[in-house]
Specification:
Shape: globular
Strand content: under 5%
Distance between the termini: 31 Å
Helix content: 55-70%
């Protein structure tokens, strides 16, 4: 098993993305616009939290410092999290939640597909297991984005507003740093930038069907995957997610 600190950081990035977005979706429990959507959002959140447990469990093994997946999830502070900024953005209305989900799902499937060929066996195994769920998530979020985008004038307006608000966070998916270069050199993970063209091709096709306009911009927001600059939203999210463990340290069920 690879022991380099870069590998641990990469695994935390994978786990934190799934964990934070999974928690965001859990916030819809009991509040979705229809019972079917309430259940679907909860199930998607559970899938992502289950994926987070796999990535963070492997991260704890690689780190080999006695911390468990639960310790990594519930014991780190904001500056130790490595999720992309997109995943921590507030739910907003249902349209914004599904737009965020679609933008993530399209990238998630691209990345997991590539990770199935990872030189690190455990990474490839987790990717092969989780990509099946991710493909279903993508199918569902894509259909809802199209349905709402090409729906009523009000649903179209809301989806375009959501796309305009969230698209500046997409660029961070393809940002390459020393961690990514180390993973690429070891053939553990692909160069993030290599996923950009297939990703953009995928989402542009969807937004064409949804009658939505992709913002034309090169500027993007970043800082989440390095822990350098999270948004103010992550601190509030962790307050909710971690309060029980912090109130009762070492508690067990």
């Amino acid at each position: 098993m690879a022991q380099e600190p870069a590998y641990f950081e990469f695994l935390c990035r994978m786990g934190d993305n799934a964990l934070v977005l999974g928690h965001r979706l859990s916030e819809w429990c009991g509040h979705a616009p229809a019972l079917e959507e309430d259940i679907a959002l909860a199930n998607t959140g559970l899938d992502l939290i289950g994926e987070a447990q796999l990535w963070l469990g492997l991260a704890s093994d690689v780190e080999d410092r006695g911390r468990t997946a639960d310790d990594l999830a519930m014991g780190r502070d904001v500056w130790d999290f490595r999720n992309h900024l997109l995943t921590e953005q507030p739910n907003g209305d249902f349209g914004q939640t599904m737009m965020r989900q679609y933008l993530f799902d399209a990238w998630h499937v691209c990345l997991l597909d590539a990770l199935c060929d990872s030189s690190q066996a455990h990474t490839a195994e987790i990717a092969a297991k989780t990509v099946k769920e991710a493909r279903y998530h993508l199918t569902r979020s894509r259909s809802i984005v199209i349905g709402l985008g090409d729906g009523t004038s009000e649903s179209h307006r809301r989806m375009q507003t959501a796309l305009d608000r969230l698209f500046p966070y997409v660029g961070e998916f393809f940002e390459t740093d020393s961690i990514d270069r180390a993973m690429t050199a070891s053939r553990i993970a692909p160069d993030p930038n290599s996923l950009k063209d297939p990703y953009l091709e995928t989402i542009r096709s969807t937004f064409l069907d949804a009658t939505l306009c992709v913002p034309e911009q090169e500027f993007y927001l970043s800082g989440g995957k390095t822990g350098r600059q999270h948004s103010e939203h992550l601190g509030h999210l962790l307050t909710q997610m971690q309060w029980l463990q912090r109130a009762y340290p070492e508690a067990s069920w």
